[in-house]
């Protein structure tokens, strides 16, 4: 079987989820090509070596440029903060490698445009880790909409609510424009823009009514490194610095099929830990998803006799009926966060092996469409006006 040598750049929170996915995928799936965990890279040599040993990477490095250009590498997996996505991806593409990049694909439209153009010119395959598409319940929603279960879609309500960013959290890269581009917007709205585009199969055509807020304007400076979670375990001193991105961004939108939509991203929505999801209402039915109950999809079939209409909870764990389920456990032996990444690793390997993914995978061009929506929403907030997507290339 053809081997795919992977070089993964970054070893934080996503470094752990991706390492787990690359090491698990061959045990649960039969991909057409075999992933080899060749090289992992971060800045501290001892930490990089220890990480490689723990997660099963053959080599560790502190020189990402050398790692991505090495002739034996086939696929570069970019799991650094957002400010390095474009630089690492462009270097990998220039070396003729396929690239899998964490989301958001870039900090700015200019960066993502360059990434799309370079990948197209080089003819390499690209992938973006919008992992929530690969929850069986979300993949099922995509298939149900495609099969016409909702009829004409009229309303989309999307939310991504977290609560971790209180005053105690230091000034990690996620709070700095230079490191991340935007705050909750690129971090959280990016996921639900991608998810609703994926499930509805429609594009967003106009943004209006966007509002942006930063509640906590100064944070303590970090004195150590990030520690493998979002912000837990990061040490800080007494000195503070300014937060230069948003904590919350809300906006309204129109979809190409005529639906109206609302989007909400927040990092201080107390009571919500990682609650991302949607409610989509169509002429024939409706769907609801909430990641905090990720194995379930709620379905309302409005074509049933009125007297027996109501919400049905579908446990999306039945092999053969629910995407990816046959490769995991028996019915209702439920999946968790990490399985979405392993499902995505499988689909990446299917594409590299010349096969179709189980459900569509976002490439750089697809992720650039999500980036355009992010940009239009920021423009709408700053200029306080509706912004047609045609204005934002
Ligand atoms: N798909 C998802 O659900 C999801 C969830 C969280 C984060 N993310 C994305 O993943 C990316 C990484 O986020 P994270 O939470 O893992 O961050 P993190 O801070 O935990 O880890 C970042 C890693 O990048 C490494 N790094 C930084 N500069 C480097 C350099 N010059 N050379 C080599 N390595 C370098 C750091 O050492 C660290 O290991 C971000 O783009 C983020 O938006 C996606």
Gross CATH architecture of the largest domain = 2-Layer Sandwich
CATH class identity of the largest domain: Alpha Beta
Strands of the widest sheet, in order across it, are: 16-15-14-13-7-12-11-8-17
- Helix-and-strand structural type: alpha/beta
- What is CATH's topology name of the largest domain? Dihydrodipicolinate Reductase, domain 2
Distance between the termini: 41 Å
Q: What shape does the CA trace take? A: globular
Report on this model:
- This protein is α/β, with parallel strands linked by helices and 393 residues long.
- The protein has 2 domains: 3-128, NAD(P)-binding Rossmann-like Domain (Rossmann fold), CATH 3.40.50; 152-282 and 365-383, 2-Layer Sandwich (Dihydrodipicolinate Reductase, domain 2).
- It contains 10 helices and 17 strands.
- It has helices spanning 13-28, 45-55, 64-69, 85-94, 109-122, 136-146, 177-180, 184-200, 337-352, 364-383, and strands spanning 3-9, 34-41, 59-61, 75-78, 98-101, 126-128, 153-161, 204-213, 218-222, 236-242, 248-255, 260-266, 275-282, 285-290, 296-301, 311-315, 387-388.
- The strands form 3 sheets. Strands 16-15-14-13-7-12-11-8-17 form a 9-stranded mixed beta sheet. A 6-stranded parallel beta sheet has the order 3-2-1-4-5-6, sandwiched between helices.
- Helix 1 (13-28) crosses helix 9 (337-352), helix 5 runs antiparallel to helix 10 (364-383) and helix 6 (136-146) crosses helix 8.
- It is globular.
- The two termini are 41 Å apart.
- Bound molecules: nicotinamide-adenine-dinucleotide.
């Amino acid at each position: 079987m053809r081997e795919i040598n992977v070089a993964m750049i970054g070893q934080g929170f996503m470094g752990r989820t991706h390492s787990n996915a690359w090491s698990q995928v061959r045990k649960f799936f039969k991909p057409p090509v075999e992933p080899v965990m060749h090289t992992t890279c971060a800045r501290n040599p001892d930490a990089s070596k220890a990480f490689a040993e723990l997660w099963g990477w053959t080599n560790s490095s502190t020189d990402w440029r050398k790692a991505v250009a090495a002739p034996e590498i086939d696929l570069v997996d970019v799991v650094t903060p957002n400010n390095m996505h474009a630089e690492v991806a462009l270097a990998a593409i220039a070396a003729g490698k396929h690239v899998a990049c964490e989301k958001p694909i870039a900090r700015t439209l200019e960066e993502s445009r360059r990434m799309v153009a370079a990948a197209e010119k080089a003819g390499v395959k690209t992938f973006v880790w919008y992992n929530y598409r690969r929850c069986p319940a979300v993949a099922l929603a995509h298939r149900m909409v495609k099969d016409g279960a909702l009829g004409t879609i009229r309303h989309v309500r999307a939310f991504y609510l977290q609560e971790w960013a209180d005053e105690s959290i230091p000034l990690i890269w996620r709070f700095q424009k230079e490191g991340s581009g935007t705050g909750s917007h690129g971090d959280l709205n990016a996921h639900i823009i991608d998810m609703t585009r994926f499930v509805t199969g429609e594009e967003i055509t106009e943004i209006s009514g966007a509002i942006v807020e930063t509640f906590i304007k100064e944070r303590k400076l970090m004195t150590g490194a990030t520690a493998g979670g979002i912000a837990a375990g990061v040490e800080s001193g007494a000195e503070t610095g300014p937060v230069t991105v948003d904590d919350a961004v809300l906006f309204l939108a129109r979809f190409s099929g005529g639906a109206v939509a609302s989007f909400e991203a927040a990092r201080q929505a107390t009571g919500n830990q990682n609650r991302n999801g949607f409610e989509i209402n169509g002429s024939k039915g409706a769907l609801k998803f909430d990641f905090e109950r990720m194995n379930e999809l709620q379905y309302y079939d409005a074509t049933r006799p009125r007297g027996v209409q109501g919400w049905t909870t579908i446990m999306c764990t039945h092999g053969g009926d629910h995407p990816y389920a046959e490769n995991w456990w028996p019915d209702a032996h439920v999946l968790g966060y990490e399985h979405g990444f392993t499902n995505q690793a499988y689909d990446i390997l299917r594409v590299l092996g010349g096969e179709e993914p189980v459900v569509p995978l976002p490439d750089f061009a697809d992720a650039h469409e999500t980036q355009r929506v992010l940009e239009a929403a920021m423009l709408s907030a700053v200029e306080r006006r509706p912004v047609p997507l045609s204005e934002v290339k």
